[in-house]
Amino acid sequence: MHIPFLGPAVSAATAPARGVVSALTPRFRPGDLDDRDPDFMRELLPGLWLLVSAWYRPDIRGLENIPREGPVLVVGNHSGGTSSPEVFISQLAISTYFGVERQHFQLAHRMVLNSPLGWMLRRFGTIEADHGNAEQALDAGAVVTVFPGGDYEVFRPSWQSGRIDMGGRKGFLRLALAKGVPVVPMVSLGGQETALFLSRGEGLARLLRLDRSIRLKTLPVMLSLPFGLQVGPQPHLPLPVKVAMRFLPPVDLAERFGDDADVDEVYDALVAEMQAALTEMQGERRFPVLG
């Protein structure tokens, strides 16, 4: 039933919250490949890797599947809310395995680059998730890591931990096809156990128009340390979960699907391949958090 006066009432009730959101909206900062600082990375890498290893006890396999030279697009599933352990683990693992001289850039939401740690992430090669930035990085012959699921996948309920759910986002495939670069699927498990994620809060996000103001389609609800019940993409202290990660063999899209590849077909095949790997990893996991 349509109630004509309900729209203005809801708009008035949510106006203060929308005002706060508008005030907190970060300014756009284009990714600059020159911000990446190999000397800075080399200095901090051992200590950061030790910290991440102690907290997450990562089990990483398949790094040899990433080509040692030339552009490549690494495509990963996304988890763990704002903590996203697979982001830090993959960055440090790739830099450790290939050396900091092998250019590696990660695409991230603009809010990440404008966070208190944004300055350090930029020096480790984090750039804004923008098509132009990704093209520039691939043209430079770099490894580019993308998490297409973004906030939609990273805040999925914890009981969907073993599910690949990139929300049907296919821009990364169009980019790979246009540039003719191989795709290396990266699958991780454990991040969704860093807190108890209850809901994506998509309805709340639409109500507050976050999708239009700051490109967020979710306003997640979760139970986490140290604040308990949290609403919104807020920082939390992640539980020391064991994170498993697999880099699958590279996929030459043109060779496998042809020069006129159907993006929908490629997407379904890639997600199915990643899902099969994730399901196998989940079958090997004995206990939540402990691994």
Automatic annotation (TrEMBL):
Pfam family, any one: Acyltransferase
Stretches assigned to the Phospholipid/glycerol acyltransferase domain: 72-191
Keywords: Acyltransferase, Transferase
One MF annotation (Gene Ontology) recorded for this entry: acyltransferase activity
Family matches, as PANTHER family: MONOACYLGLYCEROL_DIACYLGLYCEROL O-ACYLTRANSFERASE (PTHR22753:SF14), TRANSMEMBRANE PROTEIN 68 (PTHR22753)
Name of the protein in question: 1-acyl-sn-glycerol-3-phosphate acyltransferase
Source organism phylogeny: Bacteria, Bacillati, Actinomycetota, Actinomycetes, Propionibacteriales
